[in-house]
Amino acid sequence: MNDKQQVATPSSSSASSTAAQHSESEYPLIPPADVYQDGEGITLHLDMPGVSKDRLNIQADRNTLVIEGDVQIATPAGMEALYAEIQTTRYRRSFTLSGELDADKAAANLSNGVLSVSIPLRAELKPRKIEVKVN
Amino acid sequence: MFGNMNALDTLFDELRRIEGGIDQMFGPRGTPAGIRSVARGTFPPTNVGATDNEVHVYLFAPGLDAKGFNISIQQNLLLVSGSRKLPVNEKATYFRQERFDGEFRRVITLPEDIDPERVEAKYRDGVLQIVLRRRETAKPRQIQIN
Fold it and tell me: Which chain B residue has its CA at the smallest distance from A98's CA?
């Protein structure tokens, strides 16, 4: 009956989005995060399963850190979602930064769906041990 | 430093709690809850999709090792368990600890026609994908009228 529609949808897309294709919500998922600070700076770990390195976008300026990622999972053609707890294929989370953090030196690493971002303290603000010389 | 953001996050937490309450009353997205279903937010979040020949189960469990999962099938129940131990930085001050830490176990009810002998699993980008095949006999068959 709706052959036309069937033909129109790509049937051999080996890399289409998540299982829940039919109910794409416009609100992004907020990835759960751990945030801690040590002597070096601030470190974040975010759970972003399904995001590969090339689908990740991290932007940091003086005031904000924005983390975005797209979920990409291979699903067979004609798959129907029976049950879906993850109904969005996009993650987004942002954090405000403070002046003592050096966003230019931020480093990120993605491993098995966990994103780690470390933002060092500005060099002049790092706790320093002062050597006392006795002559 | 995190003052304003905390207020906003608390608001979102509250909205999520209300959403959970609505789910409890009406079931997620209006569908009735299964007898073995779990509360929203249980780790790892799980999606199940089906085609005529296969059933695909996706568990969004990042930060694990492929060997860290224990997968078994009992009749039409798929059991996936494991443990995610997050390293704690003893010297650090934690502002947020939202990520799941500890043992997890999910039980997924499968369609009746799954062949437990033909199951494949792979782990990529923090998503465990389990592919289960339906039995040949269960596929629709044309019946001839004599």
Answer: B1
Other C-beta atoms closer than 10 Å to the C-beta of B4 total: 9
Q: What is the pLDDT of residue A52?
A: 94
Residues in chain A closer than 8 A to B34 (CB atoms): 83
The span from the CA of A91 to the CA of B100, in Å, is 17
**Residue A6 one-letter amino acid:** Q
Rounded to two decimals, the ipTM of the complex is 0.73
Shortest distance between the Cα of A133 and any Cα of chain B, in A, equals: 28
Which residues on B lie below 8 Å from A83 (Cβ)?
34, 46-48, 108
Chain B residues lying within 8 Å of A18, measured CB to CB: 47, 58
| Burial annotation B53-91 (CB, 10 A radius, 16+ → b, else e) | ebbbbbbbbbbbeeeebeeebeeeebebebebeeeeeee
Per-residue pLDDT tens over the stretch A1-36: 333 333 333 333 333 444 444 344 568 999 999 999
